[in-house]
UniProtKB/TrEMBL annotation:
<dbReference type="InterPro" id="IPR006091">
    <property type="entry name" value="Acyl-CoA_Oxase/DH_mid-dom"/>
</dbReference>
<feature type="domain" description="Acyl-CoA dehydrogenase/oxidase N-terminal">
    <location>
        <begin position="6"/>
        <end position="118"/>
    </location>
</feature>
<dbReference type="InterPro" id="IPR006089">
    <property type="entry name" value="Acyl-CoA_DH_CS"/>
</dbReference>
<comment type="similarity">
    <text>Belongs to the acyl-CoA dehydrogenase family.</text>
</comment>
<dbReference type="InterPro" id="IPR037069">
    <property type="entry name" value="AcylCoA_DH/ox_N_sf"/>
</dbReference>
<dbReference type="Pfam" id="PF02770">
    <property type="entry name" value="Acyl-CoA_dh_M"/>
</dbReference>
<dbReference type="GO" id="GO:0050660">
    <property type="term" value="F:flavin adenine dinucleotide binding"/>
</dbReference>
<keyword id="KW-0560">Oxidoreductase</keyword>
<keyword id="KW-0285">Flavoprotein</keyword>
<feature type="domain" description="Acyl-CoA oxidase/dehydrogenase middle">
    <location>
        <begin position="122"/>
        <end position="217"/>
    </location>
</feature>
<dbReference type="Pfam" id="PF00441">
    <property type="entry name" value="Acyl-CoA_dh_1"/>
</dbReference>
<dbReference type="InterPro" id="IPR036250">
    <property type="entry name" value="AcylCo_DH-like_C"/>
</dbReference>
<dbReference type="GO" id="GO:0003995">
    <property type="term" value="F:acyl-CoA dehydrogenase activity"/>
</dbReference>
<dbReference type="Pfam" id="PF02771">
    <property type="entry name" value="Acyl-CoA_dh_N"/>
</dbReference>
<dbReference type="InterPro" id="IPR009100">
    <property type="entry name" value="AcylCoA_DH/oxidase_NM_dom_sf"/>
</dbReference>
<keyword id="KW-0274">FAD</keyword>
<dbReference type="InterPro" id="IPR046373">
    <property type="entry name" value="Acyl-CoA_Oxase/DH_mid-dom_sf"/>
</dbReference>
């Protein structure tokens, strides 16, 4: 693995950093307070190529590598983890899935507007009774000849209220268990497709999380992704890459909180000296810096392996498991370093602590990452 970033990588990182500071930072506290989706900012992210970063330019993408994606995600998440999850879902669950597994007609119709940021997408696997246990899909897609009839409920769907296109996973043949599951592209506005109320969340409050309700929705056959029964393998394949996105989001939350804590520790005085001169505070910062560096290495390793076309189920899961733990630990300590000021919104770190928690839950909980990793190492 080459640890040196190319000139292009540094440029992308700087562009994401400038965008985050200039466009995301100014109203991030208000968006968190009022649960406002960063619509104008997401539009600009699309214009900058951040919503289809790794997609081939012939499908409207920016044609960058996964290293660039990690670098940009970290910078965006440092400032606004809600904007970062919109970016992660659109890039690594929606666009990556469509580019890798869809046919040319599907790509021209759906991938082009999604990768260019004209519209955004959502990925709907989880259900009220099927989260970690994702093969237990209750949503059904009955084969009616020229179309499927979709019925059921999806839960916790990121970009649920703002997406134009949704990748929906559903059971077609329960007897075949996960081999009877299919993935479909569903358009917003189709008859029988209803969007539930917005969830009122602990963190990533600027992101838009909804349940989706399907009642006899007619999905044309040409909107199925891949062969009949490919849906579960599709979802797992997509999630392997998605976990790099969420790992990078977690990394960004951690490094954002660390940077604020370091700055504060150098300025705040107690007992006649800057608090960084108290070893208890300095050691917390030393732990944070070490763990963040290790998390960044895991994210870049997984990204590098993805770019080399390797199996990233293990490295993506490791990156997510570790980075999300670092995000949680770092943000808790960042609040501690800020003392009472850390407990109020103005200083940002309390929001980062709330935002960090979700990275241990979505795209596979930490317990599920350990299942993925342990199964992989057991096979060796
Ligand atoms: N990569 C590729 N294929 C995989 C895989 C992986 N990481 N994990 C499982 N599979 C394949 C298996 O090979 C098997 O396929 P075959 O039969 O063709 O060989 C099939 O999937 C079933 O595998 P298992 O028998 O191992 O299935 P299981 O029921 O034991 O569960 C699991 C596997 C790993 C726990 C899986 O259910 C899982 O990942 N659960 C977590 C779900 C999840 O991550 N949801 C995230 C929703 S999206 C989201 O959250 C977005 C957001 O927040 C922003
Ligand atoms: P459960 O699966 O019920 O798990 C409960 C607890 O049991 C967890 O601690 C879990 O780790 C543990 N557990 C379960 N099984 C095992 C086991 N075998 N061994 C050990 N421990 C186990 N989903 C989507 O499809 N698309 C999205 O865009 C999306 N966005 C989300 C956004 C937010 C804000 C949230 C909160 C969730 C989102 N999700 C999304 C859903 C998310 O992926 C699930 O919440 C997650 O996979 C966990 O499922 P669950 O909530 O049903 O918990």
């Amino acid at each position: 693995m080459n640890f040196n970033l190319s000139e292009e990588h540094v440029m992308i990182q700087q562009a994401a950093r400038d965008f985050a500071q200039n466009e995301l930072l100014p109203e991030v506290i208000e968006r968190d307070t009022h649960q406002t989706f960063p619509a104008a900012q997401v539009k600009k992210m699309g214009e900058m190529g951040f919503l289809g970063m790794m997609v081939d330019p012939k499908y409207g993408g920016a044609g960058m590598d996964s290293i660039s994606y990690v670098l940009a995600m970290e910078e965006i998440a440092k400032v606004d983890a809600s904007a970062a999850v919109v970016m992660s879902v659109n890039n690594s669950l929606v666009c990556a899935g469509l580019e890798k597994y869809c046919n040319e007609d599907q790509k021209m119709k759906y991938l082009v507007p999604l990768a260019s940021g004209e519209v955004i997408g959502a990925f709907a696997l989880s259900e009220p009774e099927a989260g970690s246990d994702a093969t237990s899909q209750k949503t059904t897609a009955v084969d009616m000849g020229d179309h499927y009839l979709l019925n059921g409920t999806k839960n916790w769907i990121t970009n649920g209220g703002t997406a134009s296109y949704y990748i929906v996973i559903a059971q077609t043949d329960p007897e075949k268990k996960h081999k009877g599951i299919n993935a479909f592209i569903v358009e917003r506005g189709w008859e029988g497709f209803e969007i539930g109320p917005k969830e009122d969340k602990l963190g990533i409050r600027g992101s838009d999380t909804h349940s989706l309700l399907f009642t006899d929705v007619k999905v044309p056959k040409e909107n199925r992704i891949g062969d009949d029964g490919f849906g579960f393998n599709f979802a797992m394949g997509v999630l392997n890459g998605g976990r790099i996105g969420i790992a990078s989001q977690a990394l960004g939350i951690a490094s954002g909180a660390y940077e604020l804590a370091l700055k504060y520790a150098k300025e705040r005085k107690a007992f006649g000296t800057e608090i960084i001169n108290h070893q208890a505070i300095a050691f917390k910062l030393a732990d944070m810096a070490t763990q963040i560096t290790a998390a960044r290495m895991l994210c870049l390793k997984a990204a590098s392996e993805k770019d080399q076309g390797k199996d990233i189920s293990e490295s993506g899961a490791m990156a997510k498991l570790y980075s999300s733990q670092v995000a949680m630990d770092t943000t808790i300590e960042a609040v501690q370093i800020h003392g009472g000021y850390g407990y109020v919104k103005e200083y940002h770190v309390e929001r980062m602590m709330r935002d960090a928690k979700i990275t241990q839950i979505y795209e596979g909980t930490s317990e599920i990452q350990k299942i993925v990793i342990s199964r992989s190492i057991a096979k060796k």
